[in-house]
ABC transporter permease (Streptomyces nigrescens), 567 residues
Amino acid sequence: MSTTKTPSAEQGSHSNYRRSLGTIALTATGLGSIIGSGWLFGAERAAAIAGPAAILAWVIGAVVALTIALTYTELGSMFPKAGGMVRYGQYSHGSLAGYLAAWANWIAIVSVIPGEATASVQYMSSWDFGWAQALYDGKELTGTGVGLASVLLIFYFFLNWFAISLFAKTNTAITVFKVVVPAMTAGALMMAHFDTDNIVHHGGFTPNGWSSVFTAVAVSGIVWAYNGFQSPLNLAAEARNPGKSLPKAVVWSIVIALVIYVALQVAFLMAVPGDKLAAGGGWAGLGFNSPLADLAIAWGLNWLALLLYADAFVSPSGTGMIYAATTSRMIHGVQENGHLPGIFGKVDKKTGVPRPALLLNLVIAFLFLAVFRGWGSLAEIVSVATVISYITGPVAVMSLRRVSPDLKRPVKLKAMPVIAPIAMIFGSLVLYWGRWPLTGKVILIMAVGLPVWAWYEIGKPLTQGRKPWAALRPHLKAGAWMVAYLLVMASVSYMGGKEFGGKGYLPEGWDIALVAAIGLAFYYWGVRSSWRNPSLVQAEAEMRAEDEAREADEAGETEGVKAPVGA
């Protein structure tokens, strides 16, 4: 398309990034993104939806995330560029599918930033001070609470403003703290009170049925949490050895987080006082403002409560800082896809930070904070938008194997032809489990971004006296599968089982089978729709140029070593 940059222009912007992040720093980035506000609220929210079976919800969520993440590790190692997650659909299917995938991904990630600030302030509202308790009214932040959360957003912004090296050092230190405190919390609560009767009574292991387990995966913050595996991929341009470090960082961050989250969920389930469950009518009646801290106080662990109140700033702030960094790289990626003004592709030469993109995300974070003032409402929107962005990876990875088989792949799994369709099915199921009407609302949000795409692909060329239709036609044809997928999934969600918020037109069990079949059908349609579009051709040219430059450098170094010997 006419909006595509020349290879030299894109290479120039990327040369300002600093390849300074190793495997440990990237793993800390992924783990730090996963362990944010989710561990502070996720255990209670999952238990309220699924009861003790919430333990399984965390395991299912990890399996889904790991399966989908494996498709992205191949893509990330192939294209080690800033904002990688918003690029892959563009490379495999052109501008329409690429833009929809990038829009969904960006919405899901940028909204996490105000979510983390909201979590910190919500935990603070449990402090025994009048001013602190006035920050949260039980459902959402008050005006004062929004003001304090805004200060935190500015704090995240400035931590990223100066240099990627400052970000890496700060984040690694914070991540260590974020791993130690949850582990201590789980152990302390288990030792203080471990009531196995909580699993037997109050409705048993699955008080709300098995469907509630799947809904918990989709909307309780589980998908929100595991979505942090994207962060290392979005920082790929700053990875020292992306082919080796990115896959390790993604997989290890999910596995370590799974162990921590399951331990916290077990500790929470056993530590809730039985009389509180009885008084509230079971797990659904739970209503803690600061779940883990409230339980610590209930069992006399005041030191733990104080530690949790402190960590309520550290954990969400660490995650907010990471997402402020990764979303700025995503904006850079969207700009290089041709769908934002050139200013957002600029990277500061001195610091290696895309400052205009960072500033744009700060503004958008303020808007989200003004509209969604509670952690729960943000978690639902983020989770479903995240799942929509997930469907790109499985389709893109096999599409690129079809249309660009000779492209260098530092990571290439032999089982990918099996993993990719399974990942697409998992993504479709989690989207369905998100429940109607939430699924419909988020799919509608996807349509909100289309005018931006239409301006850059249709409106702008027309104002310049050009006719874009001939060039646009193959992009529309290649992206039709994704538009149809969203419409079909919205319809199935509306007609689906009542346990998932639908009208009940589809029998229980058959709805799950239908969604799986839909996911598989659209996977094959998507792969067959891929084509060698200009963005892919450009990326291939850049990679060849980089390989040639690297070979020339190596040859020069070899000659430099041999010369003294000959002399």
Remarks:
- Residues 302-336 form the longest helix (35 residues).
- Residues 1-17 have pLDDT under 50 and may be disordered.
- The chain is about 75% helix and 0% strand.
- The two ends are 54 Å apart (CA to CA).
